[in-house]
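seq/struct pair 1
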Amino acid sequence: MEGNAQNVIKKKDRGLDSFRRSMCRSMRRGKGKSALAAVLRGVLIAACMTVVAIAVFALLLNWWDAGDRTITAINQVVKFASILAGVASALGPGGEGGTLRGCCVGFLYMAAGIVCYSMLMGHGPQMTGYMADLGMGIAAGGLFGMIMTGREKS
């Protein structure tokens, strides 16, 4: 009976020791970065990319007479490219949890854009259009996150 109890204790200790080793190994691999910090970094990179792209686009509009449909299409492309850049920075190649991180980056990026747009225009959010933007951000971020998770480490 005593030998059986000692085996149980040894297995339990071995499990805790294995858990500690795996936690230390994952901290070394991730260099101590949390998922929240990675998502916030992704949102900031996406926002910065949007600001730069919109500024360049505004300069181009001085020489180019674009219609409303063209401006809307280019704004959508800028949003998608910004979400892609944000998800890529929030999730390294072959990382885990890409879909969730991508959805979070897309949602927070679009929510921040909606808040900024509402403040600049001086009116409250219009729910129907903004809910579609939030849905697009979540879907695009999740899709890009799945793609980033699926690619091999370089």
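seq/struct pair 2
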Amino acid sequence: MRTAEKYICLVLCTAVLMLASACHQINSTDSAEGSISFVDDDGVRIYLDAPAERVISLYSAHTENLYYLGAGSRMIGGYKTCVFPPEAAFLDMYDYSSDPENIIAADPDLVLIRPFISRRSPDFVDALRKAGICVVSLYPDSFDEFDDYINKLAALTGTEERAAELLAEFHSELDAVTELTAAVDEKQRVFFESTETNIRTVTDDSMAGRAIKLAGGINIAADEPPAEEGSSIAEFGVERVLENADGIDVYISQRGSMNSGGNLEAIEQRPGFDTIKAVKEGRVYLISEKLVSSPSFRYVKGVHELARFMYPELMDNYDGYRTDETAVRRQLAELIVMHEHMPIYLPSSSSYYSSEHKGHTFGLFEDVSWQDRSFDYIETAVNSGAVEWFDMENGEYFYPENNVTREELAEAVFILGDFSAQDDHAVISDIDSCSSTRIVQTLVDNGVFGLNEGKFEPKRVVSCNEIIAALDRL
């Protein structure tokens, strides 16, 4: 084939590819038309003719937000850290450190990345774009950019109306926490550990730094500059932590890829840490980076958790539950978590769903979805062992609307408390009708539960007031 003919053939092939693709990515100074158009965070102008139908997300926050937006059905793949919501953990997984042909073969019409991936694996990203795949890089550098970021995700997936609703709820819920804690006279002083290495913290304008302020706390390291330009991490060090020992009311350690660290006991046993006020008073907490440092709608939960750590009695006020109406199991879970000020439970590893574990599998109740208003309370109560769950042939169940029985309440109180068997035993005339005879006998002998004409009445339903009274006896 002559040179001119080769050139014409190349031009024609390129034109066919351009027409076949619904996405056009060009330099931001060029001009083109598309129903969806914006400049992504790598400076590439994106033109998409229609919302994407087959999406692969290589960043967990993108994945979470897409499910919140109602675009979960468009997801055909994720990254190994994409484990929330639970159904995302069962997507086909892809890695930007592997062969791009794996993604190309999946035939997505949109691949979502972030600038970190572009910097780390530029050849991988280029290969996807050369294959005609629409690659969009997004990441909000600050809390103030969150809305714009969400609106771009919504535009890419045709979920703009849902985005507007969620963003309104998001800011309303954050405002509610801020307004509630604003009335507190004695503001809590917080040290936020971002990494165990060198005991680094977060900058004041980071997502986590902003969360502390929204929750009504005072970040003792608020004036620290970033460790390097554009970073959300600031240097602090052990010496300065100990210098501020008397002024740290609450010590919070972030857990995740940046800080795998140790457990609460390991933090408390660090040399010199026994002088820190928060350690002496048992106010050291762990929080997932997914809740406070990741740009997702779960950030609201992170702010709420920080406020619970700082102002437990205020945030876990359950006066609204004081009623003699029959209680249901979701209320039992909520009251246990609030009464005991339990941090909400989250799996600590991204390999959680690919690893064997005993007991209930987080997020896989058939009758309690991750969108349920009581989800966090139910999962926390169940994973603490305080509330029973049911392993049925067709899946795991919680039965949130079932009434709470007296024996069920007794089992929860026994798990939460520290009770010893007594030498003198009360006579319980209906003890044989109890499933947990030892628990019932121990609690009655310890005066935690009374009898009605000698009967325990294990199947009698209880009210929220009875639950609160029993928990108070702990």
